[in-house]
Structure formats: structure tokens, C-alpha cells
Design brief:
This protein has 23 helices and 30 strands. With about 700 residues, the chain is of the alpha/beta class. About 55% of the residues are buried. The chain binds alpha-methylisocitric acid and iron/sulfur cluster.
Length: about 700
């Protein structure tokens, strides 16, 4: 049978289960990546597993998130990571070498290989044809130890690209268009595969911009074929010997996706589906105004794309830049793992050359890697940025994760990044627009959101049309190699690096209060912010004090206080959420810290993939309402009770929850694989892995 490329790579790596969409599968993992903010915990958990050396083909530890170094914590983490990587046989990309996804793409990612990373944007490497998946740190630790990675065999959504992008329109506009069709919810358990004659016109970094923001769609992974363009990119990185051609079979069939949408609230999405999808069918509207919309594959004519932007709050709020024309801009930031490649920066530098930004605009640039920074430094483009008035920021995540450059109150910040969840910048009422590099630089030059095409029309600036370099500047001297066999390494463990707490098996009776009830689309940034708190990632007891702090009311006990007060005499705490609970980042601390605080169950309408797995890994019951309306019957502080939880976890499909306060009962689904049931009963993945 004709196969998609996603399935071909899965087939080659399948060690458990069958290639049946929706079923649990175990995959052999060839490569892993960790970054410092999740990696310190991942390596601590790896050490706790008792495995001495990594058993993958390649494992790389990156330092790119926690770079501000206010206080000793960050540097302590870096020293631990460098030493533990050397001891266990992993590579270590040092601070300053660049953002993990950009560097991995440049130096390590390979077509046809599986890559598991403790970061939700790991699928960036799908742009080179690697089956790359983001996961929690503990899953990555298990993979480093040679264990399979378990996930749901994805349903593959096909995205056909035809034609060629016009001037001033880039691949960021492709993925924003896709977000306007698929939205940020309802895509769990799917993968996106790009195909069609339009693909050949996109270079590898452009493809990776699309695969990177698959994380915002909530899909497991996103993939492009490995073709002549891939070969040229790898040759330019001195890695042609690692290239291998790969493509889906010509007549591969893609998944027919069904989305449940609301006729009024989702009018725009329904319009976009009707415009960009094939064989669209609209179902019957129900009494509440919902209907099923199904379609075969998506088709985007690149030639017809226009510059797009995601408006503040969510990467899924997509409109055309022309719709926003005239909005004044206070800050422009270029960078992040989505758009910090050589081509991205050269495009911006070409526009800025010989100009100075207006007095009211702040411009910052985070080159994606030391390779990118070195290349723009030697060809003069860095000088164009400096002369234009740009602030040259580190080759790191930086502002993308709220490590600096927070905008002023209610100031408009235009960024080439991938996430604009409110408050992620470090400013509570931020107003962040996500755009392509040309749109960002047009904003920097004019001080307003404006279709970048007007740069040609009004200012006579030619579309730079930056070609992929024939040769990148290759210098791996900031990547430490694993230590030689037999070498004795002193692993540096400073006082701020604290052993993670042990997981506890699910108790048979779970009783306690709902310590928080939240609404739709709660991201892991809501659950546990990063920014200035990143430095506590390796100290769970301290970091846990900040869980759900964004919902604090002055003078009232915090979420952590409420949980700790609830957790006396064997009592537990519950979290109640709505749609797409746990969106966004892979940070397992969003499960680990609640576990530390005594949370034993999360009940939500739907739970996102990585967060669901993290909850299981830390022995928190991930429950979903059998009837979504039951959400409305629960109040914060209600006392809930689950009896015989262990036997339910062992074998039942559902479990009854008693709302003691309201005198009601409701049913929740236990949508778990056999393996996940065993993990919960063992007290989490670490205990389970130690036992098996
Ligand atoms: C993010 O973009 O939110 C992060 C920071 O890269 C996270 C990882 C983390 O929380 O450390 C992610 O995307 O997984
Ligand atoms: Fe870093 Fe931002 Fe990319 Fe996350 S999204 S890896 S914080 S650059």
C-alpha cells in the first residue's frame, strides 16, 4: 500500500505495537536533544535511572534558554550539564553556540532519523526530513537510556503546496495560513506532512519554519521530504554524506480530518477550510450550534499567499497584515527557533542597510546560532543591523522565553517568534504580534504594522530574495564531544541543583478540593511561567511555589498554599480544566511541580499530547469529562472523591467522580494505554523504568 513519509519512517523504527493510526506505538529513537531549561531535570532523571552511558546514536545537550545568569543558578546548571554530558557520552553545545533547534538543524539532524527532544519545537528538524518529536524530559531520559518512545501512531494530515511564494511573502506566512485553517486545537494525535510541487521552492530553513510551528497546531510532528534542496543544504553544512533521499509514495492517502466547530464563533475557520481544503463536507448543526467539518487534504497555492500575522494572545489568531495596517509599533524583535536563520537575518539586514530605525522603535536581533552570527559578522550584515540602531542580542532563546526585552505596559511588540501567549514576555498586559521577518523589518523601518510589499512601492526597496548559501561557515568548536571511554569525570553538582522528588503510586481513594478551576486553552506558561523563574527549574520545591501564580489574587492564598493546605492526612488536590489543557511547551515541570504539591488528578475537557504524557509520567491521573457539560457543575474548592481509583486505573475505561460539595456525581474517561496504566500504578515513569 502506498505510504506517507511519516509512516515510512515510523515503520523503520517501530519496536512495539502496530502501524495503526490512534494505537500506541513504541519507536526506536536515534537522536535526542535536550535544552538547559528542561535538560537539567532530564539528566537528573537519567542519572536516577541508573544508566551509565547514553545508548542512542547521538544525544546532544544544548544551553540556550537559561542565559541571563542573575544569581548563580544558571551557571550552576551549565556546569552540571557540561560535565554530565561528557560523563554519559553526550555532545554539549555550549552557551553562545545557539538555539537548540537551529543548531541541530545545521549540524546534526538527518533525514530518516528519529529525534526526540525535551522541547516542544523539536519538530523543527522535520524540515530536513527527520521524524522529530517534542516530549517531556523524562521521556527523553528514557530514550537516552535506549528505551523506546511511546506515543500514539499519528493520523497524517496532508498539506499540498503548489506554486511559488511572491516577493515579501515567506514560509512564516505558510504556517500562519495553516494555523488559520487547523487552529491551535483539535489536532492532537495528528502529524502534518507537506508535499506538492511548491515544496521544491522552499529551502531547508524555510521548511523548518513550518515544521517548527507545528507545535502551535498541537500536532505530534511535521515533516518534509528529503530532496535535492535538502542535499544542497547538507552539502553546504559539510554533511552531504549524511543525506538520503526520502519521499512519500506518489499516491499516498492522507487522513480525512474532522473538526468540531461552532457556526458563529468559528465562522472564519469554516471559511478558511472551505477555501483551502479539498472535499469539504459540513455536517448537521446541533442545538448548541456545533457542527462537524471534514476534509481530505489542505492545498495552499504559494503564489496567492499574502503577509499574515497572529494577533495578541494566541498563534491561532491569524489575520492579514493589511488588516492591521497603521497599528503603531514600539518594539520589533527578530529571532527565535522559528525565524533566526542566515536567510532570515540577511533579508532583514538588506532592508535595514543604510537606514536608521525611527526614534520610537526598539529593534532587537537574536541570531539563531553562532554560525549565523559569524556569517553575518563577516559579510557586513551585522554592521547594517548595528548602524540601523538594532540591539544585538545573544544567539539564544532570550526574549522568546521572557529572558529580557519585556515590552512596556500595553506596548505593541512585533516578533518573528512562534508564541504570543499573554504574559509570556514578562509583561502582564503585553500585545505581541507574530509575523515573518519581512513584515517585522517593515515594522522596524516604518514604525507601524504594514504589508512589507509597500517597502518596494513606497520606499523603493527591492525584495532581497536571499539565496541559500553554497557554503555555511562550519565551526563546531563550541560543541564539546563526549568524554573518552574510561575517563573519570567529576559531575559538578552545586547546591541549586536538587534531586527530583520521587513519584508516588496513585492512591486508591483520591479525596480533596479542586484547588483551581480554569478555562479553555490553558498553556503550560500559565501553569508555570518561564522567564525570570527559569532559574528554578532544577529545584522543584522552589519552582513549585509559582504554579498558577498568574491566577493569584492579592491577599489570598496562592495555588501552592491551597494545595499544601489540602494535602494533609493523605488528602489530595484536583485541577479542573476545559479545552486543550496544557497547550504549548513541553515543560514537564507543569506536571512535576503539581505532583510535588499533592495534585493527584487533572480533570479537563481535553488535554494536549505532551502534557498528558507528562501527567502520566509523574503519576497524576489525566481524566477527561465523559460529558463536557459536567465541567459547568464544578466550582473551585468543591470537594471531590474518587474511590477504588487503583482498580479503575488498572482496567476501567471510565471512573466515577463524586462531587461531595454539590452532592452530584459525574463520569470521567480514562483514555489510557495498558502501558500508561502500569506507569500510573508504579508511581510514574521513573519507578516503572527502574522496575522493568
Ligand atoms: C518554549 O518555547 O515554551 C520552551 C521554553 O522552549 C519550552 C520548553 C521549556 O519550557 O523549557 C518548549 O517549547 O517546550
Ligand atoms: Fe527557545 Fe523560543 Fe524556540 Fe522555545 S520557542 S526553543 S524559547 S526560541
Amino acid at each position: 500500500m502506498a505510504q506517507t513519509l511519516v509512516y515510512k519512517i515510523i515503520d523503520e523504527h517501530l519496536v512495539d505495537g502496530r502501524l495503526t493510526p490512534g494505537a500506541e506505538i513504541g519507536l526506536r529513537i536515534d537522536q535526542t536533544l535536550t535544552q538547559d531549561a528542561t535538560g537539567t531535570m532530564a539528566f537528573l532523571l537519567f542519572e536516577a535511572m541508573g544508566v551509565k552511558k547514553v545508548r542512542t546514536e547521538l544525544s546532544v545537550s544544548y544551553v540556550d534558554h537559561n542565559m541571563a545568569q542573575f544569581g548563580p543558578e544558571n551557571h550552576n546548571d551549565h556546569l552540571y550539564l557540561a560535565s554530565v554530558a561528557r560523563a554519559v557520552g553526550a555532545y554539549h553545545s555550549r552557551p553562545g553556540n545557539g538555539i537548540c533547534h537551529q543548531v541541530h538543524l545545521e549540524r546534526f539532524a538527518r533525514p530518516g532519523r528519529t529525534l526526540l527532544g525535551s522541547d516542544s519545537h523539536t519538530a523543527t528538524a522535520g524540515g530536513i526530513g527527520s521524524l522529530a518529536i517534542g516530549a517531556g524530559g523524562l521521556d527523553v531520559a528514557v530514550a537516552m537510556g535506549g528505551g523506546p518512545f511511546y506515543t500514539t501512531c499519528p493520523r497524517v494530515i496532508g498539506v499540498k503546496l503548489t506554486g511559488k511564494l511572491p516577493a515579501w511573502v515567506t514560509s512564516k506566512d505558510i504556517i500562519l495560513r495553516l494555523l488559520s485553517i487547523l487552529t491551535t486545537k483539535g489536532n492532537v494525535g495528528c502529524a502534518v506532512e507537506y508535499f506538492g510541487d511548491g515544496v521544491a521552492s522552499l529551502d531547508v530553513p524555510a521548511r523548518s519554519t513550518c515544521t517548527n510551528m507545528g507545535a502551535e497546531l498541537g500536532v505530534t510532528t511535521s515533516l518534509f521530504a528529503s530532496d535535492e534542496v535538502t542535499r544542497q543544504f547538507m552539502a553546504a553544512q559539510d554533511r552531504e554524506d549524511q543525506w538520503r533521499p526520502l519521499a512519500a509514495d506518489a499516491d499516498a492517502a492522507y487522513h480525512r480530518l474532522v473538526k468540531r466547530l461552532h457556526v458563529e464563533r468559528d465562522t472564519k475557520v469554516i471559511e478558511n477550510i472551505s477555501r483551502f481544503c479539498t472535499e469539504v463536507e459540513l455536517g448537521q448543526k446541533d442545538a448548541a450550534g456545533f457542527l462537524d467539518v471534514s476534509f481530505d487534504h489542505i492545498e495552499i497555492d504559494l503564489g496567492e499567499l499574502v503577509p499574515l500575522a497572529a494577533t495578541p494572545g494566541s498563534p491561532g489568531n491569524v489575520v492579514t497584515v493589511s488588516d492591521l495596517a497603521g497599528i503603531g509599533v514600539d518594539q520589533v524583535l527578530i529571532g527565535s527557533c522559528t525565524n533566526s536563520s542566515y536567510q532570515d537575518l540577511m533579508t532583514c539586514a538588506a532592508v535595514l542597510k543604510g537606514r536608521t530605525i525611527p526614534p520610537n522603535v526598539e529593534l532587537g536581533v537574536h541570531p539563531g546560532s553562532r554560525q549565523v552570527l559569524s556569517m553575518i559578522a563577516s559579510n557586513g550584515a551585522l554592521g547594517d543591523f548595528i548602524q540601523a540602531g538594532a540591539r544585538i542580542l545573544e544567539s539564544a532563546c532570550g526574549a522568546c522565553i521572557g529572558q529580557g526585552n519585556s515590552p512596556g505596559e500595553a506596548r505593541v511588540s512585533v516578533r518573528t517568534f512562534n508564541r504570543n501567549f499573554t504574559g509570556r514576555t514578562g509583561t502582564a498586559d503585553d500585545s505581541v504580534y507574530l509575523v515573518s521577518p519581512p513584515t517585522a523589518v517593515a515594522a522596524a523601518v516604518t514604525g507601524q504594522l504594514i504589508n512589507p510589499r509597500t517597502l518596494s512601492q513606497d520606499l523603493g526597496i527591492d525584495w532581497p530574495n536571499v539565496a541559500a548559501p553554497k557554503k555555511f561557515l562550519v565551526d563546531d568548536s563550541m560543541i564539546n564531544s563526549p568524554g573518552p571511554e574510561g575517563e573519570t569525570i567529576n559531575i559538578v553538582r552545586s547546591s541549586t541543583i536538587v534531586k527530583p522528588p520521587a513519584g508516588q503510586s496513585v492512591p486508591d481513594t483520591i479525596r480533596g478540593p479542586v484547588t483551581i478551576k480554569v478555562g479553555d486553552r490553558i498553556t503550560t506558561d500559565h501553569i508555570l511561567p518561564a522567564g525570570a523563574l527559569l532559574k528554578y527549574r532544577s529545584n522543584v520545591a522552589v519552582y513549585a511555589r509559582s504554579v498558577f501564580n498568574c491566577f493569584n489574587t492579592e491577599g489570598e492564598p496562592t495555588f501552592a498554599d491551597r494545595c499544601l493546605a489540602a494535602g494533609v492526612e493523605g488528602r489530595s488536590a484536583f485541577i479542573v480544566g476545559a479545552e486543550s489543557y496544557g497547550q504549548g511547551s513541553s515543560r514537564e515541570h507543569a506536571a512535576l511541580c503539581p505532583m510535588f504539591l499533592g495534585v493527584r488528578a487533572v480533570i479537563a475537557k481535553t488535554i494536549e499530547r505532551i502534557h498528558f504524557a507528562n501527567l502520566v509520567n509523574f503519576a497524576i491521573l489525566p481524566l477527561t469529562f465523559a460529558n463536557a457539560d459536567d465541567y459547568d457543575t464544578i466550582e473551585q474548592n468543591d470537594e471531590l472523591l474518587i474511590e477504588s481509583a487503583c482498580s479503575a486505573v488498572a482496567s476501567a475505561e471510565t471512573v466515577e467522580v463524586v462531587n461531595v460539595t454539590q452532592g452530584m456525581k459525574f463520569v470521567c474517561k480514562l483514555d489510557l494505554s495498558e502501558r500508561q496504566r502500569r506507569i500510573l500504578l508504579a508511581g510514574g515513569l521513573l519507578n516503572y523504568t527502574r522496575k522493568t
